[in-house]
Amino acid sequence: MHIVSHEVPLVWYLILSAVLFCLGVVGFLIKRNLITVFMSIELMLNAVNLSFVTFAHQWHEVKGQIFVFFVMMVAAAEAAVGLAIIIAVFRARSTLAVDRIDLMKL
Amino acid sequence: MHLILFIIFAALCLTGAVNLLFQKQPINSALSLIVVMTSLAVLYLLLGAEFLAAAQVIVYAGAIMVLFTFVVMLLNAGREERTLGSRAYRTVGFPAVAAILAVIATSFIKLQGFGSARIDDHITSTADLSAVLFTKLLLPFEVTSVLILVAILGSVALARKGDAEGREPK
Amino acid sequence: MTILQFFLWSVLKVIVVTVVLLLAVAYTVLLERKLVGRIQNRWGPNRVGPFGLLQPLVDGAKSFLKEDIIPTAVYRPLYLLAPIIALSCALISIGVVPFGDPGITGPGNFHFFQIADVNIGLLVILGITSIGVYGIALAGWSSNNKYSLLGSLRSSAQLVSYELALGLSLVGVVLRSGSLNLDTIVATQSTHGALSWNLFGGFQFIAFFIYLMAAFAETNRAPFDLPEAESELTAGYHTEYSSMKFAMFFMAEYANMITVGCVATLLFLGGWTSPFGNLLPTPDNIVIRSLLPMFWFVFKVFGFLCLYVWVRGTLPRFRYDQLMNYGWRWLMPLAILNIVGTSLWLAYR
C-alpha cells in the first residue's frame, strides 16, 4: 500500500469529490429552505472543482486549474443573482419555505 | 505528512457537508459550508494549486458565503419547517443519488495509471497559471467579465424596490 | 535540520511572535488613549505607573476579573464562537509577515524573522482578513439585539465593498514586483532606500491613499466606524458582550490595525529596509545587523499607527450612504485607473 510512503493516491481525492457531490444532491433534495437549497448547489460546484484540481495535478495541465477559476467566477455571479432572486421572492411571499412557493403568479 | 493532512481535512470536509444536511438553522448550514470550503482550500494546496487555494478562501469563503450569511441575517431566516408536499423525492431521489455515487465511484476506481500526490510535488505557480489564462484563454476570460457585469445589473434590477417601470411601491 | 528541530523552532517562533503581538496590542491601546488625549487637550491615562505605562496591564486584569454575563436570549453556540473567530483571524495573519532581513538565516536556511515564508503571502493575508468578517457578522446576529444586528449588517456590507478597493489597490504593487511573496516585494524596494519604495519610486501614492482609506474601513476605525457607532448603535456588534469576550473583540480590532500597518509597511514603505539605503554603512556586528532592520520595521509600523490615531482624533464619522458612495464611486474607479496607469507605465518604460 501507499500508506508507508506517505503518499495519497489521487483516486482518493476523486472519491472524496464524488461523495461531496452526492451529499450536495441529497441536500438539494431534503432541504426545505430556499437559502440552504442554494447552498447545496454551491456544495456540488465545490465538489466538481476538487475533481478538476485533481485531474490537473495528474496530467500536469494548468488548464484544469483555470477551469476551476472560471467556475468560481460563475459561482460568484450566480450567488449574486440567486440571492437577489431569493430576496425578491421573500419580499413577495414573506416565506423561504420551498413548499409554499408554488405559484407562478401572486 | 501528506496522508495525515489529507485525512484530517477530508474528514473535516465530510463532517461539514453532513452537518449542512442535518442542521435546521440556515446560519449553521452556512457555517458548515464555510468549513467545507476552507478545508477544500487546504486540499487544493496539497495538490499544488496554491493560487486556487487562496482564491477559494477569498472568493468562496470570504465573499460568496458572506453574501449568504448576509441574506440569512437580513431575512432573519429561522428554523426550517417540515415538508408539507409529497414524499416522492425520498422514494425516487435517494436510490437515484446512490446510483450516481456508485457509477461515479466505480468509474474513478477503474481509472488506469493514476498516480499519487506527495508533499513535495510540483507546485503550479501563479505566474504559470496567468501565462496560460491571459494568452490562450483570453477570450473566455473577457467573456466571464461580461457575464459578471450582466450579473451585477441583474441583481441590482432584481433587488430594487418598485415594479418594472421603476415606480416606487405604495 | 531534522523535522523535529524545525517543528520546535517554529513553535518557539510562534510563541515569541504571539506574545510580542499581544503586548503590542496592549500598548497600541495606550498609545491611542494618550495621543487622542493630547489631541483633545487632556492628559490621557497617567495614574498607573510612570506616565501611565502600566495602564494596559491593569485594563487586562480588570476585563479578566469582570463578571461574564451571557444574556438569556442569545444563540449560545455562535455567541461564544464569534469572539474566537475575530481574535484568531486577527492573530493568524501576522504569521506570514517578514520582520527582518531574510538574508540572516540559521542552520538549514532557517528564517528567524518570519514564521512562514509563503509564495502567496499577500493572498494569505487577504484571505484571512476576509474570513475575519464572520466574527463580527455572527456576533451581531447571535446577540439577538437590534443594535447588534444593524452593526453587523453594516459591517459585512462595508467590509465586502471596501475589500474590492483594497485588493485592487495592491495590484499595482504586485505588478511592479512581479510576485506575491512578501520577501520578494520587499527585496524589489531595497536598492536606493526611500527612493525605491513603492510609495515614492514606484509612483504608487494613489494606491497608497486607496489602501489607507480601505484599511481604515476594513478595521472598522474612525471615520468608518459605523458598525460600532456609539452615538447611534450603543456599541454596535459587541453591545451584548462583556468581560473577556468584549476584550477579545477589542484586541482583535487593534491586532488588525497592527497587521494592516505591517502590510502597508511591507508593500509601500520598503518593509525592513532602511530609508537611507546605502548612505549609511552596513554595520559589521551581526547582532546590530539583525536588529537594525527590525528597528526600521517597527518604526514604520509605529508611524502608521500614529497616523491611525491622528485620523481618528481629527475626522468625524461618515454617514452610511456617504460611506457606500465613497467606496464604490471613488475608490474603486480610482484603483482601476491606478492599475491601468501602472501597467501602461511598466509596458512602455
Secondary structure: elements and pairs:
The complex is a heterotrimer of chains A (106), B (170) and C (349).
Chain A: E1 8-9, H1 10-30, H2 34-59, H3 62-93
Chain B: H1 2-22, H2 26-46, H3 50-75, H4 88-109, E1 116-117, H5 126-133, H6 138-159
Chain C: H1 3-39, H2 55-65, H3 76-92, E1 105-106, E2 110-111, H4 121-131, H5 133-142, H6 146-177, H7 182-187, H8 205-218, H9 230-233, H10 243-268, H11 286-314, H12 320-348
Antiparallel strand pairs in C: 1-2
Helix pairs in contact in C: 1-2, 1-10, 1-11, 2-10, 3-5, 3-10, 5-6, 6-8, 6-12, 8-10, 8-12, 10-11
Strand content of chain B: under 5%
Distance between the termini of chain B: 63 Å
Taken as a percent bin, the fraction of beta residues of chain A is under 5%
| H and E order of chain B | HHHHEHH
Structural class of chain B: mainly alpha
Helix/strand-derived category of chain A reads: mainly alpha
Instruction: Enter the CATH topology name of the domain at 1-79 in chain B.
Output: Four Helix Bundle (Hemerythrin (Met), subunit A)
Task: Write down the Rg of chain A.
Answer: 18 Å
Average residue-wise pLDDT of chain A: 84
Number of domains of chain A: 1
CATH class label of the domain at 1-79 in chain B: Mainly Alpha
Q: Let me know the average pLDDT of chain B.
A: 83
Q: Which CATH architecture of chain A would you pick?
A: Orthogonal Bundle
Compute the number of helices of chain B: 6
Question: For this entry, what is the oligomeric state of its chains?
Answer: heterotrimer
Describe this structure in words.
By secondary structure, chain A is mainly alpha-helical. Chain A has one domain: Orthogonal Bundle (Helix Hairpins), CATH 1.10.287. Chain A has helices at residues 10-30, 34-59, 62-93; one strand at 8-9. The radius of gyration of chain A is 18 Å and the shape is elongated. Chain A starts with 7 loop residues before the first strand and ends in a 13-residue tail after the last helix. The mean pLDDT of chain A is 84. Chain B is globular, with a radius of gyration of 21 Å. Chain B has 170 residues and is mainly alpha-helical. Chain C is mostly helical. Chain C has one domain (74-348). Chain C is built from twelve helices and two strands. In chain C, helix 3 (76-92) runs antiparallel to helix 5. The mean pLDDT of chain C is 84. Chains in contact: A-B, B-C. At the A-B interface, strand 1, helix 1, helix 2 and helix 3 of A face helix 1, helix 2, helix 3, helix 4 and strand 1 of B.
